[in-house]
């Protein structure tokens, strides 16, 4: 008899705890989704004309090579934008700490950086490099952020890629 009472008590406890947790997860997921949408809208309004051009260049290259389109991801866009600004401010060409600032549950991350006298020139340089081209055209990547900044006659072009 005590076994039956214990089983029923255990069932009641589980049922009591599952509902609040599930509701809490649902509310949290809704808030995160809303924040993501809001951040996407803010970032899309803040993209420079050059960064929009950069997204077009990356998309066209992938399309021309039969590779799937990439979705703009707010974290990647912010990271690429800020890193391009950093490179322009220092005049150096180097990679970022790739995982820094990325909270999304990524499977793979990639980054390409280049500089030239123009955004198109910097992107063309990436496409002429086997390693950069391979990364830009890798079909495993599903999301992207493109950052472009200018300083001292140089244009810095940063692409951050992610597989979710």
Element layout with pairings:
Blueprint lengths: L1 H45 L2 H16 L6 E2 L1 H17 L17 E9 L2 H10 L1 H7 L6 E9 L2 E10 L1
Parallel strand pairs: 1-3
Antiparallel strand pairs: 2-4, 3-4
Architecture overview:
It is a single chain. This protein is an alpha+beta fold and 164 residues long. The chain has helices at residues 2-46, 49-64, 74-90, 119-128, 130-136, and strands at residues 71-72, 108-116, 143-151, 154-163.
Brief overview:
This protein is α+β, with helices and mostly antiparallel strands and 164 residues long. The protein is 58% helix and 18% strand. It has five helices and four strands.
Shape: globular
Rounded Rg: 22 Å
Uncertain segments are 1-23
- The largest beta-sheet arranges its strands as 1-3-4-2
Report the major sheet. 4 strands, mixed
In sequence order, what are the helices and strands, one letter per element? HHEHEHHEE
Structural category is alpha+beta
What proportion strand?
A: 15-25%
Q: What average pLDDT do the residues reach?
A: 80
Please give the number of β-strands.
4
Percent helix:
55-70%
What is the number of helices? Answer: 5
Distance between the termini: 51 Å
Attribute tags:
164 residues, alpha+beta, 4-stranded mixed sheet, 4 strands, disordered N terminus
């Amino acid at each position: 008899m005590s076994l039956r009472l214990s089983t029923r008590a255990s069932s009641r406890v589980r049922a009591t705890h599952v509902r609040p947790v599930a509701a809490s997860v649902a509310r949290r997921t809704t808030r995160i989704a809303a924040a993501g949408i809001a951040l996407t809208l803010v970032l899309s309004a803040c993209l420079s004309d050059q960064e929009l051009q950069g997204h077009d260049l990356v998309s066209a290259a992938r399309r021309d090579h039969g590779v799937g389109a990439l979705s703009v991801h707010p974290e990647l866009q912010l990271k690429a934008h800020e890193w391009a600004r950093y490179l322009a401010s220092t005049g150096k060409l180097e990679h970022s700490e790739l995982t820094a600032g990325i909270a999304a549950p990524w499977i793979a991350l990639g980054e390409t950086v280049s500089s030239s006298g123009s955004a198109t020139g910097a992107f063309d340089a990436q496409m002429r490099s086997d390693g950069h081209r391979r990364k830009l055209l890798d079909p495993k990547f599903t999301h992207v952020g493109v950052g472009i900044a200018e300083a001292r006659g140089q244009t810095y072009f940063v692409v951050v890629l992610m597989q979710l």
